[in-house]
Amino acid sequence: MGVFLIKRILSVIPILLLAVLILTGLIHLSPVDPAQAYLSAAHIQPTDELLAAKRAEFGLDQPFYQQYFDAVIRLAQLDFGTSYLSGKPVLEDVLLRLPPTVELALTSLLLALVVSIPLGFLAGIKKNGFFDHLSRVIAFIGASIPSFWLGYLFIFFFAVKLDWFPVGGTGSVMHLILPALTLAFPLIALYTRLLRGSVIEALNEPYVLFARTRGLKEGRILGKHVLRMAIPPMITGLGMNLGKLLTGTIIVETVFSWPGFGRYFIEAIFDRDMPVIQGYVFLAALVFIGSSLLVDIIQAVLDPRLAKKGGTV
């Protein structure tokens, strides 16, 4: 297990270096001049002299390899520079905006797991039954309705018509329910059908038949053997969506006026705040890579054979 962990952690390094390379290249491909964006945000009339001075200050007059090397050093220290608008370090603004996004993402994830695990399990063991048909309806709705439209529907019915929840903002648990449900609904649809398929596949395995012929109780077979073998594919899907949750809350935060990391990124795009945009993209890559690494480790713990085979999950 120790060798497996070391190999997986070391494999992350070239991926991060590639992410920084792409991020550095995007600055040159972008039509936005960071120096001009900075002067515009500071309400300073750009001149050739000021633009040249700012490009030198930002290191944009250096060769590409030097800019890449400097970016690696800075990002390794989580130094994303200073926001053009607030004048504060980007990391300081990120740490201020990240907790609401983490709160929203974890609540959505918890809600999705609480609903999808029992629903998917019952849909699998009772194929073509009530819970199976219910899971199909949820999957159809979750795959068909975009998050922003689902959010507006929730606001219209539950906030405007019924007045059960506030329209947007933050401050209480009631403010959290609608955006969390909007984020959780597609995940419920995905995890329910994923677990259902895994349960049906596990029920057809020979070891389940052997367990039944040995006279084991059905509850023990379902809990100890079927559910245990059906959970790993769901964990893989969970890891793939964890990064999406933390970085993909942009639309939901905008719809519900949630003061999180995603909304901060949208504001930075409109204001052409390049350090914030770069910081967000790098942190997004870091979250996706970290969640993938975490899933590989959990899978290896659940099935030690993966670690012995080199960690192919």
TrEMBL record:
NCBIfam families the UniProt entry points to:
Opp2B (NF045470)
**Keyword Transmembrane helix applies:** yes
Name the keywords, alphabetized: Cell membrane, Ion transport, Membrane, Nickel, Nickel transport, Transmembrane, Transmembrane helix, Transport
Gene from which the chain derives: nikB
- Please name the Pfam families in this protein's record: BPD_transp_1, BPD_transp_1_N
Topology in the lipid bilayer = Multi-pass membrane protein
What residue ranges are annotated as transmembrane? 9-29, 104-125, 137-160, 172-191, 242-261, 281-302
Under the subunit heading, UniProt states: The complex is composed of two ATP-binding proteins (NikD and NikE), two transmembrane proteins (NikB and NikC) and a solute-binding protein (NikA).
Name its cellular compartments. Answer: Cell membrane
**Name the UniProt record assigns to this protein:** Nickel import system permease protein NikB
User: To which protein family does this belong?
Assistant: Belongs to the binding-protein-dependent transport system permease family. OppBC subfamily.
Domain of life, per UniProt, equals Bacteria
Q: Does the keyword section mention NADP?
A: no
Q: What is the lineage of its organism?
A: Bacteria, Bacillati, Bacillota, Bacilli, Bacillales
Q: Where is the ABC transmembrane type-1 domain?
A: 98-299
